[in-house]
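#onboarding

Welcome to the new folks! Below is a worked example of what a typical request in this channel looks like: someone posts a single protein sequence, and someone else replies with the predicted structure as tokens. Don't worry about understanding the tokens yet, we'll cover that in week two.

Example request:
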Amino acid sequence: MDLSLRLLRHGYDAVAADRAAHGVPPDAGAHATRLVGRRAVVVRSEAGVRFFYDESAAERKGVVPPPLGWLLFGRGALHGLDGDPHRDRKRVMVDVLSADGLGPMVARVTDELEAATTGWPGREVTVHPTLVSAYGRAVLRWAGLDVDDERADMLARRLAQQVDGFGFAGPAYARGWASRLWWDRWASRLVGDLRSGRAGVPDDAPAMRLVRGIDGDDRTAAVELGNVLRPTIAVSWLGTFAALRLAGLPQWRERLADPGEELARMAFAQEVRRTTPFAPVLAARATRPATLDGVRVRRGDRLVLDIMGVDHDPARWEAPHEFRPERFLTHAPGAYDLVPQGGGHPAGHRCPGESLTLRVLEATLRVLATVPYDVVDPGVDLTRMPTTPRDGLRIRVPAGAPHRSGRASIPGSA
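Example response:
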């Protein structure tokens, strides 16, 4: 069976099922298969991950089929570029998403979540849509877009639908494309207003810096604007798993609620990313031959990065299938050992929003740790991509539950 079909059938367990079907040992560093009808080599060893992120050995352009790539990233997006065009555009994206400038956005996330959780006692709440709304309001206003709550929630839902559809999950895929087409039209008009000055957005606002830094027409800039806003909203999938994990580890609550325990929250966030990555694989194309872990790679072969395999590799992680945040309190993972959002050097194809993801999860944990709650249904469907706990994680918050502010002083939030 083609690996693409296994991904549709098995989701996050697809590569493990493919490896077993080919009679490949579970600890193998690489194996050959087929992806969308073409020969492919799945990699997960350090040598394989290094090859995947070596720009002289692998390229991205045209690898992800348009029905998937254009839905999630947009036509002509950074994710499908290589060489100088990729480096030049990524420089703009990294500048906008620099860690030094994220403080105000993280502060907004904290404010939105604290406002939402204040009304939780005595109610049953669904976590995922709550996070979509909070993250959406925060990132849109951080970007400099003047939108009220109702408009911000609508835009956040549109962007979340694009994320939810990328796994070809029936109606979600159709909703995702409807939202993608709507977004491209709306954002293209917005970019025109930004570039002409009609939008009245300050020159130093992130949205303005982005669209003026991107070479290309309004549609291309609109695509990349979405690729800055949407990943923040996509963190809601990880945030929902963070809420689930927190419910199962009550001994961590007091520590995570302590404003001074940022390291503990970051460690918890890293473990959420490691155990429940957004996607199970990434793809590229080999531009030169090689031999990886005894498997021959030919020029033109598809390369598949086994994210689940890398992040659950017993050679890299002790007890890899156990959730142990403490492993990150004293251990800084290597660039090729923890790859939930890609690996390698940040200047290459590693996700430019990785630091943003960690900061948003850290803020989310700080607030959630102050709210006592029980999970209604902890079930997770690993065949669904992307997945969340069932029904978006419904929780019950007892009436009269104490609510303590998780707010801490955030650098750059003034």
